[in-house]
């Protein structure tokens, strides 16, 4: 999941940052949103109730590993907004790459 998340973020946000810088809160929301999209596409939404605590722990671990540094340092508010509006990873990479 970490590799796919990194690829999704890099592909979607490959443009140089322009405009204002996003806040820590905005970046946290984006990273968590991308993690949720990745988990959903990996079948996390269909996980049995007994496996959900483990899934949530994995999401927390990925968030801690990824952090918000790249978002804060390299992305614009417009890119973050686009990423937050994405409904899936394909939309994230195609739509937000152009923003």
Helix and strand topology:
Layout: H1 2-12, H2 24-41, H3 52-66, H4 69-74, H5 77-85, H6 89-97
Helix pairs in contact: 1-6, 2-3, 2-5, 5-6
Gist?
The chain is mostly helical. Helices cover 69% and strands 0% of the residues.
Description of the molecule:
This protein has 99 residues and is an all-alpha fold. The chain has one domain (19-43, 51-97). Helices cover 69% and strands 0% of the residues. It contains six helices and no strands. It has helices at 2-12, 24-41, 52-66, 69-74, 77-85, 89-97. Helix 2 (24-41) runs parallel beside helix 5 and helix 5 packs antiparallel against helix 6 (89-97). The protein is flat. The two termini are 25 Å apart.
- Which stretches are low in confidence, meaning pLDDT under 50 for 5 or more residues running? none
**Largest pleated sheet:** none
Number of strands: 0
Summed up, the domain count is: 1
The amount of helix comes to: 55-70%
Classify the secondary structure makeup into a structural class.
mainly alpha
> If helices are DSSP runs of H or I spanning 4 or more residues, what is the number of helices?
6
Q: Compute the separation of the termini in Å.
A: 25 Å
Helix and strand sequence: HHHHHH
Rg over CA atoms: 13 Å
How does the overall form come out from the CA principal axes?
A: flat
**Which band does the percent of strand residues land in?**
under 5%
Average pLDDT level: 83
Features:
mainly alpha; 99 residues
């Amino acid at each position: 999941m970490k590799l796919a998340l990194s690829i999704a973020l890099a592909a979607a946000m490959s443009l140089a940052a322009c405009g204002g810088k996003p806040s820590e809160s905005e970046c946290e929301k984006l990273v968590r949103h991308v993690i949720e999209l990745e988990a959903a596409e990996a079948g996390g939404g269909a996980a049995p109730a007994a496996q959900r605590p483990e899934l949530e722990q994995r999401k927390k671990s990925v968030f801690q590993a990824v952090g918000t540094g790249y978002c804060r340092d390299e992305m614009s508010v417009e890119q973050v907004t686009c990423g937050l509006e994405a409904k899936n990873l394909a939309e994230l990479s195609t739509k937000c790459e152009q923003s």
